[in-house]
């Protein structure tokens, strides 16, 4: 017979591990399925300078190691597996993992986070890690003295473009409209930098070239005239937003039209009693490690109180 867990946590970013720390200390004996990116998005960043308690900053991967160790110290079991299918239609809830295991749990805490969006071009996928990246802080270092392009018009694009000036000789920012949605201060910081050139009304329609095995050029299109041109390039950085990792919950839990899971106001509880959501899977607005950790704590406390109410 399968053991029914008190709580199963899906995801191992700041939200998942914080939920685990609190759940473990409340004797819920949590199991964490770490997912396909153990440690979450912070494992592909370098310095984290805005997480309180680290006055000198901390490296993202190192911080997530600390989160994991702290969760394990109180008895959390972490499995490096990915949830592939869920059934929340009856209790105990069921989760199938890619290790051919089936978990049953009285409560589920979803902390599956979000992932960077890509343009969806065929060559973009083929040249990932060969000049195409969605993380300047991870890969910028490899573009010393190179000519790089950043796609996007939000705060991320400005931040990445500014960051890349530390390494690249030229940074070109491609904005598909004639305005950017980034905050004024972030725009100014990027646009006033001598290494940054903005190309308004410009989209990437192809990444060249797969034959060379690395990015050598981009085919760009004027979004107003449709005119195309090819520009030499060593790197392409995508900064066009993120998508919550919630496909798994389609048809099981309410989500908005982008896929963010919907929780009750001011809570992590969902329409299914016993299922809680924290972190970026339900937050399109703040998307910070500290807010993810905060909602992870909320989810564990809510799960604990919900179980207490069930069992009396
Ligand atoms: P946003 O959703 O804010 O911006 C995405 C940008 O990408 C938009 O300019 C959008 O263009 C563009 N875009 C989307 N799809 C495409 C496409 N297919 N081709 C070309 N361009 C495309 O995402 P961000 O990641 O920038 O920011 C997300 C949130 O995080 C925001 O709230 C932001 O303020 C915050 N943030 C804050 C930072 C800070 O304060 N230090 C740093 C980074 C992020 P369009 O405008 O035309 O839709």
Structural class by SSE content: alpha/beta
Low-confidence stretches: none
Q: What fraction strand?
A: 25-35%
Radius of gyration: 21 Å
Question: Descriptors for this entry?
Answer:
elongated; 24% helix; 7 helices; seven-stranded mixed sheet; alpha/beta
Can you walk me through this structure?
The chain is α/β, with parallel strands linked by helices and 312 residues long. The chain contains 7 helices and 19 strands. It has helices at 14-25, 60-73, 122-126, 136-139, 155-164, 184-191, 289-311, and strands at residues 4-10, 31-33, 47-48, 58-59, 77-79, 83-87, 93-97, 102-110, 114-116, 132-133, 147-151, 170-174, 196-199, 202-208, 217-222, 228-232, 235-238, 242-244, 275-277. Strands 1, 2, 5, 6, 7, 8 and 19 form a 7-stranded mixed β-sheet that branches. Strands 10-17-11-12-13 form a 5-stranded parallel β-sheet, with helices on one face. Strand 6 (83-87) and strand 7 form a beta hairpin. The protein is elongated and about 65 Å long. It binds NADPH dihydro-nicotinamide-adenine-dinucleotide phosphate.
């Amino acid at each position: 017979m399968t053991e029914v867990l008190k709580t199963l946590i899906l995801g191992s970013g700041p939200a998942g591990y914080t939920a685990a720390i609190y759940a473990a200390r409340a004797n819920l004996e949590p199991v964490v399925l770490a997912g396909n990116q153990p440690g979450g998005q912070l494992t592909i960043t370098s310095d984290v300078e805005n997480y309180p308690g680290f006055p000198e900053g901390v490296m993202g991967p190192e911080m997530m190691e600390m989160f994991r160790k702290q969760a394990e110290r109180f008895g959390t079991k972490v499995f490096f597996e990915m949830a592939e299918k869920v059934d929340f239609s009856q209790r105990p809830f069921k989760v199938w993992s890619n290790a051919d295991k089936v978990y049953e749990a009285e409560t589920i805490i979803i902390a599956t986070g979000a992932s960077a969006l890509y343009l969806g071009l065929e060559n973009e996928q083929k040249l990932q890690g060969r000049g195409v990246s969605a993380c300047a802080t991870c890969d910028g270092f490899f573009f010393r003295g190179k000519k790089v392009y950043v796609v996007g018009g939000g705060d991320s694009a400005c931040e990445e473009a500014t960051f890349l000036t530390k390494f690249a000789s030229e940074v070109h920012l491609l904005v598909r409209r004639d305005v950017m949605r980034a905050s004024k201060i972030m725009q100014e910081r990027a646009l006033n930098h001598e290494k940054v050139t903005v190309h308004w009304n410009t989209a990437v329609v192809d990444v060249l070239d797969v034959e060379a095995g690395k990015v050598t050029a981009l085919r760009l299109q004027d979004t107003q005239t449709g005119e195309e041109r090819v520009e030499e390039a060593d790197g392409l950085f995508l900064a066009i937003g993120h998508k919550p990792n919630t496909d798994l919950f389609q048809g099981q839990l309410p989500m908005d039209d982008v896929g963010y899971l919907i929780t009750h106001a001011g809570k992590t509880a969902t329409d299914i009693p016993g299922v809680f959501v924290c972190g970026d899977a339900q937050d399109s607005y703040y998307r910070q490690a500290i807010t993810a950790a905060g909602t992870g704590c909320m989810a564990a406390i809510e799960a604990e109180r919900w179980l207490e109410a069930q069992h009396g």
